[in-house]
Structures are given as structure tokens and as C-alpha cells.
Design goal:
This protein is an all-alpha fold. It is built from eight helices and no strands. It is flat and about 70 Å long.
Length: about 180
């Protein structure tokens, strides 16, 4: 049953990724991107990576996509639409063929990935999310805190930029 769901999630992810860049309407692109992100989250479930599944849903399908749609609403795109030209479609299909060929080579590779330092019994007993949390907050606490400070700086910068009047606002207030 797992191979069936893997094929389903991977095929829909590929089609949704192509549709994300092929649609003319930016809102339709956003919906195709949402479909892509949800199906990638389904692939994480098949890999027994529940933590990455939750992060994919909460961060990417939730926060990033909402931010994308807010930017679209703020830009107020009226008549500008994107077109997928024929020469780009040929390049896209050639790239898809090359990626498919690389995927076949990787799947047939006799070499596996690197093993983690936690024994499989401990991960199965406590759960993958617990193991990731222990590793993140013990060995990688300083980088985790540095990323938090960077994100705080980005939030403060966004607030300052949003409150700063632009030259268009100043010119309109003079009239």
C-alpha cells in the first residue's frame, strides 16, 4: 500500500509544481503551491517523519503561503499575467526528463545515507519528534537561539519598513 501512496504523492507533487509556474493567475499559482506543499507533507508521513510533516503543514502550507497571498493582495496585480511560452515548455519537459533519469539513478544506488547516532530502539521508543527535540536543544542550542535572534530582527525590520512612509505616500499627502 505504501508504494501506491508514494507514487500518488510524488506524481501529484510534480504536476502541482509544474502548474505553480504554468498558471497565469497568481491566486491559482498559490493554490497549486498549496497542493504541492500538502502532498510533500504526505511524503513525510510515508517516511515516518511526523515532525517534518507538522513543520511542513504549519510553517510552509500555513505561514509561508498566507504571506504569499498577502503580498499578492498588497501588490494589486490588475492586468499583468504570466504566460508559459512554448520554448519554456520544451525546456521544462527536458528538465523533467533529466530529473527523472537522476531519480532512477539515485533509487538504484547501492549506497545508503548516513546513519544517525541515536539507536533505532531509542527513536522507536520515544518517537522521532522527541529525538529531534533532544538533539536540537542539547547539541544545537546556540545555532537555534541565533536563528531566533535573526528572525526577531527580521520581524522588527518588517514593522519599521511597514510604518515608514514612502515617497508615494509623501507626494499624495502634499496634494
Amino acid at each position: 500500500m505504501v508504494p501506491f501512496f508514494f507514487v500518488y504523492f510524488s506524481l501529484v507533487s510534480i504536476v502541482a509544481g509544474v502548474l505553480t509556474i504554468a498558471f497565469r493567475n497568481p491566486v491559482h499559482c498559490g493554490l497549486a503551491l498549496l497542493t504541492l506543499l500538502l502532498h510533500v507533507a504526505g511524503l513525510f508521513v510515508l517516511l515516518n517523519a511526523e515532525f517534518l510533516f507538522a513543520v511542513q503543514i504549519i510553517v510552509y502550507a500555513g505561514a509561508i503561503l498566507v504571506l504569499y497571498l498577502f503580498v499578492l493582495m498588497l501588490l494589486n496585480l490588475k492586468t499583468e499575467e504570466r504566460y508559459l511560452h512554448a520554448r519554456y515548455a520544451v525546456i521544462l519537459f527536458a528538465a523533467a526528463g533529466i530529473c527523472g533519469e537522476l531519480l532512477l539513478l539515485v533509487l538504484r544506488s547501492p549506497f545508503g545515507g548516513l546513519k544517525g547516532d541515536a539507536p533505532a530502539e531509542a527513536v522507536l521508543k520515544d518517537g522521532a519528534s522527541y529525538a529531534i527535540g533532544i538533539k536540537m536543544f542539547s547539541d544545537y542550542l546556540l545555532p537555534f537561539e541565533i536563528v531566533g535572534v535573526f528572525l526577531l530582527g527580521a520581524i522588527i525590520g518588517a514593522i519599521v519598513l511597514a510604518k515608514t512612509p514612502t515617497t508615494v505616500d509623501i507626494e499624495q499627502s502634499d496634494r
